[in-house]
Amino acid sequence: MDSKNVRSSFGKSCTKHFYDYCEHSSIQGLSYLAKDSGPRDKLWWIIVFTMCCAVTICPESKISTKCLNYTKILRARKLGKLIGTSFTENKYFDYMSLLCNAENHGSSMQLTNRSISEMFNETSSNSDDRYPLDFGISDYADFLYDCAAVTIDDATCQWMGTNMPCREVMTPIVTDEGLCYTFNMFDIKDIYRDVNRMKTFRRLRNPTWDPDWGYPKNDVLEHAYPRQAFLNGAKNAFVAVFFTKKDQLNYGCNHFSLQGIRVSLHIATRIPRPSQVFFSVGLDRLTTAAVIPSLTSVTENILDYDPHDRNCFFSKERKLKYFAIYSQGNCNLECWTNFTLQACNCVSYYMPRDNQTRLCTLQETKCLEQARVDYPEAVLSDRLWRQKKRKGGSKKIHLNCDCLPVCLDIVYNTELATGEWDFNNPDEAAYDDSRNITDLYYASGVKIFFKDNYFLPTSKDELYGTIDVISDCGGVLGLFIGFSLFSVGELIYFFSIRLIENYRHSGHWAG
């Protein structure tokens, strides 16, 4: 028997056995396929089967003119005339290279291998009379604090309708925008691990809030920290007013001459990045921010899933080197720190570091700027599982950040409204203790409150579990074709026992 006849015989046997199953099956409609009906009827039945919020405020004026007249030194550097400037002024100007435009501190204006006595008519206290561009900046935080143009002592604050000294509710913090002041944030030592060696100013209250489970049920409201706004509306807001002297404005530091303050809203366990996410409050402006929280949580059904399947980490599930509490923002900052360390072999002043990591010197500012430019491309390459080759060498920098969101995440969306504030008009002054402010100051105020008492959270859950798939498939099959457990028995019988019995009685599996 040739192969063609074998294939023909096998096809006829399969067809005969399928018709036999259709004639005797309890599944509705299958018998119509076995009947000797027209092709239109059979096509119809075939078609039927197949269809089936913490607040961080950063003044835009970074440094007081009592320490540095930035515009004066910038002009002197550009003209190459340092007579009439002091060594201290030039040192502080170089400090500002970490906050101001890189173009203002280009290599053409660096004072490399120049004599201090020659440039400033001053005698150096060190044996080396050369201008020290390679000195460290471990005292950078003290420099920002001691020379701040806008201080917290001159600000006024209000919480839930009660006036409070800003120093009691806000604390200084060093960020990528220099010296800022934060309200309702965890203490730095509670966010970072002990390995970190960053400057801290003072200890805050011990937190009673957990990033995964919130406040304890028995927590007393007045002792809870971070503070809770238990009522909505503008009368229950956090209000902060910062004052900037008119002679402290500096328009030469940045490209965009933003003045006043910048405000960043974030969860209490995250280190703020006010250079990345913020809204501005101008001079003599009052900005109100109605906060609308967006809470994302998970159900217990997906706790056992792999983090990359559920696309989130619990705060204690993912360990970071420098941070005690995981968040996507903290992870991104650590990733940015590691990238800078690989690129420059040092880190910037606001980045976390350990005893083995050194701060970049002022001569390495150009490397820090280049790393900032290269970082977005490196992140994109990492997401696309490619390595990025640095220019000028064969060294490859590969990021392995793995910065998934936290499973219990809060995002603060805001509705902003800004109006002009004639602060010097006594009839429009908002606070009695501010009426004595003269025309020497600009005022920048922000009022932050929750818009509603309630908000609708979003919960992550498994769309279909194993049982759901089985029950849904069984329900659909049962609804449309009468499929049941008895039908499963028929399938097993016709395609196992029936074949064996056919072979025993007739010597052929098709019977």
Task: Please tell me about this protein's structure.
The strands form 3 sheets. Strands 2, 3, 6, 9, 12, 13 and 14 form a 7-stranded mixed beta sheet that branches. The chain has 3 domains: 53-61 and 151-319 and 409-465, Acid-sensing ion channels like domains (Acid-sensing ion channels like fold, Sandwich); 63-123 and 137-147, no CATH class; 328-405, Helix Hairpins (Orthogonal Bundle), CATH 1.10.287. Helix 11 crosses helix 12 (365-383). A hairpin with a 6-residue loop joins strand 10 (388-389) and strand 11 (396-397). Residues 37-52 and 386-395 have low confidence and may be disordered. It contains 14 helices and 14 strands. 31% of the residues lie in helices and 17% in strands. The chain crosses the membrane at residues 476-495. Its main location: membrane. Belongs to the amiloride-sensitive sodium channel (TC 1.A.6) family.
